[in-house]
Amino acid sequence: MPFDCSSASGLTVCVTGAGGFIASWIVKLLLEKGYTVKGTLRNPDDPKNAHLKELEGAKERLTLWKTDLLDYESLKAAIDGCDGVIHTASPVTDDPELMVEPAVDGTKNVIIAAAETKVRRVVFTSSIGAVYMDPNRGPDVVVDESCWSDLEFCKNTKNWYCYGKAVAEQAAWEVAEEKGVDLVVVNPVLVLGPLLQPNVNASVVHVLKYLTGSAKTYANSVQAYVHVRDVALAHILVLETPSASGRYLCAEAVLHRGDVVQILAKLFPEYPIPTMCSDEKNPRAKPYKFSNQKLKDLGLEFTPVKQCLYETVKSLQEKGVLPIPTQQEEPVRIQS
């Protein structure tokens, strides 16, 4: 049993890669609940991490630790004294050398350090990339926590991000079993929503490109989406729930790119949002079926994808990444 969660007071959680999109939200929500948080960063003094120090409760209950995933001793020092670890730090790249080794060895180091310092539970941020890349799965098969990506298919298609995520998660399960660590895994899909960090992360670029005019067409493909706050809440839920075990698929909806641009055009007609598909020859790609029931059973209520898209764009406007239209119309009311 990881915690007595009747009170977060006096409990300490280490969040690796604390300055990232998802991790910043996890730190924010943990602090709001009263936890003490130790955040690991490659460089705590980098201005891109300054937002963490501004979070409510940060002055009293947040410390930032200079660590490297491949430097075991620095990781162990940060994890020592923690009740739980949420391991979100991971490279986001399609370069196999930059993706696979840090993802796998860094994850092993975190779990071994957690075992040595007697951490009660480790929550690992994996990805849908470790779940759904399987060319042999039929269109009617529901994607759930039992699914794994086909490693050979990932290699052959040079999808090193999905390959790295799958291999890292497999390594996490193996080392956790070997070391007797209580491990739970969250597998988010593409994450959207308000940015706490100053830089625009890879998943938000997915929406940004449709608003800046850099994408003239949209792809004939589908994508699953989820709100960043829901992902952060999912991590905390599985950390706190004694009965939580295994993997948790974190997704709200699967949409065709055509649906995404249609929603964006209705909400924000002032931007040059593409109306043409780059592939008019082939049939429209169909959304795959998935189950998020495990997280719903823990009480997570997912934010509708329209709201995710709306809040993402509003956040990009507030950060000055997107120009705010001169004539602001009546506020848009989101209907789920």
UniProtKB/TrEMBL annotation:
Q: Which reaction does it catalyse?
A: (E)-coniferaldehyde + NADP(+) + CoA = (E)-feruloyl-CoA + NADPH + H(+); (E)-4-coumaraldehyde + NADP(+) + CoA = (E)-4-coumaroyl-CoA + NADPH + H(+); (E)-sinapaldehyde + NADP(+) + CoA = (E)-sinapoyl-CoA + NADPH + H(+); (E)-cinnamaldehyde + NADP(+) + CoA = (E)-cinnamoyl-CoA + NADPH + H(+)
Q: Which organism is it from?
A: Betula luminifera
CDD domains under this entry?
FR_SDR_e
Keywords from the named record = Disulfide bond, NADP, Oxidoreductase
Put simply, this protein is called cinnamoyl-CoA reductase
**UniProt cross-references to InterPro entries, sorted A to Z:** Epimerase_deHydtase, NAD(P)-bd_dom_sf, NAD(P)_dehydrat-like
The segment(s) forming the NAD-dependent epimerase/dehydratase domain are 13-245
Asked whether the keyword NADP is assigned, the reply is yes
Q: Which PANTHER family match?
A: CINNAMOYL-COA REDUCTASE 1, NAD DEPENDENT EPIMERASE/DEHYDRATASE
| Nucleus keyword on record | no
Question: Which classification does the entry list for the species?
Answer: Eukaryota, Viridiplantae, Streptophyta, Embryophyta, Tracheophyta
Q: Part of which pathway?
A: Aromatic compound metabolism; phenylpropanoid biosynthesis
Instruction: Look up the EC number in the record and give it.
Output: 1.2.1.44
- Its GO biological process terms? lignin biosynthetic process
Q: Member of which family?
A: Belongs to the NAD(P)-dependent epimerase/dehydratase family. Dihydroflavonol-4-reductase subfamily.
Q: Name one GO molecular function term.
A: cinnamoyl-CoA reductase activity
